[in-house]
Amino acid sequence: MKKLDHPQLKETLYYEQLPNGLQVYLLPKPGFQKTYATFTTKYGSIDNTFQREGQEKHQVPDGIAHFLEHKMFEQESGEDVFQQFARQGAAANAFTSFTRTAYLFSCTDHTMENLLTLLDFVQEPYFTDQNVEKEKGIIGQEIKMYDDNPDWRSYFGLIEAFYQNHPVKIDIAGTVESISKITKETLYDCYHTFYHPSNMLLFVVGGIEAEKTIQLIRENQAAKKFDPPAKIDRFYPGESNAVSEAKKIMKLSVQTPKCLMGYKEKNTEVNRTGTDRLKQELATQICLDAMFSTSSDFYQSLYDDGIIDDTFGFDYSLEQGYGFTMFGGDTHQPEELIKRIQEEVPRRLSTGITQEEFNRIQKKRIGASLRSLNSLEWIANQFTSYRFQDADLFDIIPTLEKLTLDDVNERLRNHFQPEQFAVSLVLPK
Amino acid sequence: MSFATFQTVSLGNIRLHICPSDKFKTTTFSAFITNSLQSDSVTKNALLPNVLSRGTRSYPTTVALRQKFNELYGAGSFGDVFKRGERQVIQFGMDLANETYLQDAPSLLEEGIRLFCEIILDPFAENNQFHPAFVEAEKKNLKQRIDSLQDDKIRYAAERCVQTMCEGEPYSLYTYGNAEDIAAIDAKSLYDHYHEILDRSPIDLYCVGDVDSEEVKTLFAKYFDDKMQKATRAEVPFATVSHHVDKVKMAVDRLDVNQGKLNMGCRTQISIRDEAYPALLMYNGILGGFAHSKLFMNVREKESLAYYCSSSIESHKGLLFIQSGIEEKNLERAIEIIKEQLTVMKNGEITDRELEQTKATLSNQLREGQDRAFELIGFHFQSVLSGKSRTLEELLQKIDAITKEDIKKVAEQVELDTIYSLRGKEREKQ
Fold first, then answer.
1. pLDDT of residue B429
2. CATH assignment of B249-423?
């Protein structure tokens, strides 16, 4: 087991890759009652066309990664695994994103038992025709719940406006129609491809002792048989730089219109890994902060003119193969908001971000990263997400400290180009 | 492992609660101003934290104030209101980086406390009124927030259930007030109201972090000096809890939705002040608090009717709410199953396993709160607010000792009061 010290942050991370390929990271947090663990596969909703070495190529129904996540909780005993976690006092859950599926628990007692339960249930799938059918009703209701959620609809509307072909534009849960085609056989195909330990990462953070914990994990994994690791090819359709549609409008039962806007990354900007990727993300966030945060003159003028309210926010997503900024919120004047944005961004491109702004926002983001380190959930999930892109969570603060004004202004001019801009509007019916 | 404890000191008639802890990388502050929940002040109280967050004497513009936060390494700061029983509490919070973890950073503590206090005590004001532009912008923002409630169908249905159930009781008021009352508020009337509550309402200050208690006390005393001595602070009465139901109320709203919502409200007759409160927590846990609970198992897992079906309690008013998202054609079936579960609880049909699982998960939930500074503060403030001191150790011991008989006794007191559903628009007849 390797020991990685971060003295400035007073954190020590332990790492080991097991013989079956599983990557294990442990972060003991003295003084914490709680332990939080995530067992994550690098497999999300975008991985709908793939080939496992030596097997045929599969194209699977939309929403299957999420469906599989639901079905993992089923066990051969007939008891779902929530019951066992509950007996051991743990709160268990799971989530599926575009690129990851994570199983997790938090607990303050019986930590080692819970850890074994987590490893075992994720590594023992049990799908039957009957339990697959049962889930279609439940997930159907989950899909309908999101259909009524205007924030979710405007978020997906903008991704659909950005992307012509990339599967990021497909709703993570799929549709009632697409999930109707899911069978236990396709679930097993997906499972055997993506849930091999060599495609997974276990992160445990909180009130644990590193040596005892790794020993337990080693023994548990050594006792199980796995196929040798196989290479996984993932196929994504070609995507042009251009946005799919500049403006997408949806009508829903809402009182206040929602306006979400953003810029799609060009293909040259979505393949960085490691520290370069981190630097791109942090520089983009500083640009967004300078233009749109509550400490900007622009935000305050929109707010005081009654164009936006305090739901206005911004975000940046970057993964291998896609990336975009998003900003917006509730507004009764969506056209005026779009106009003001389209005036402001080019203005900022020509003036650039000032040294004073940069210094201030750099400090703010360092403080915010430090605050995030209070959250065990954030550490485990963010660490895993970065690790899957060969980046390191603990490089955030050093990378922020090394960023320069030139880096940020270069990013500003590179990303916020008018032809990459798109809008998603949710309007009252 | 022992639990964090707060040391409470009096600064005149203001209480300061400090919990030194080195496990967080930030220092967290909160201030709570407690008011009774009343229709003539609910909207003003909701507006206040937003207006106060707009500018102070030293930082008279919002941009200047927000930039000051950035300079303090992105101190997180918020002002908000929440409802506990029939009280409306104004809360300010701040989260400040601990300079130990930063390279070449100066001490931030005093500057942070000074700014925190200035937002609460020393707003940008002229001629005995708030800056009118701030008030007008925040009125618009509040109006939009109240109007937008309907856009979040889950929250909207929950609020409509409360309004139906508690009609005529202060608890029916929405946390953020009434849209119709906003227009009449102006910079002067709000400023007068602000001074009244600052002088009359109970104030509790909190600090959690790797701090020296004496230093924190000295700093808060320095900046709160003016407010500590002169005022007399009236106790705010606790809500009426006991309420017997003659007839179950039914209410239906129709909106253009894909999925219906079902919300059911019950009177438990038990509040956080009562000895039976730990048994009520267990009751709620077994009924619908967790993924192993009766509601989740029966509505979701057995019948596939819903993605979510759960229950929660309001501990200061003695209410219990059940919520679910249900296809309209299955609403009657869901109501039937939920009523069955309430009856099952009344009959004391609880398995050993449900008892054991719920004790374990409930205790875990309570212990986990120890690792988040704002939750640590929230838990302690509950006891201040209720006047019922119950440490986490005591609560955990009580939960551990709960029997099925104790839970059955709670169940016998729970009365279904309201069944609310949100349904799709009726199709027009051809």
1. 40
2. 3.30.830.10
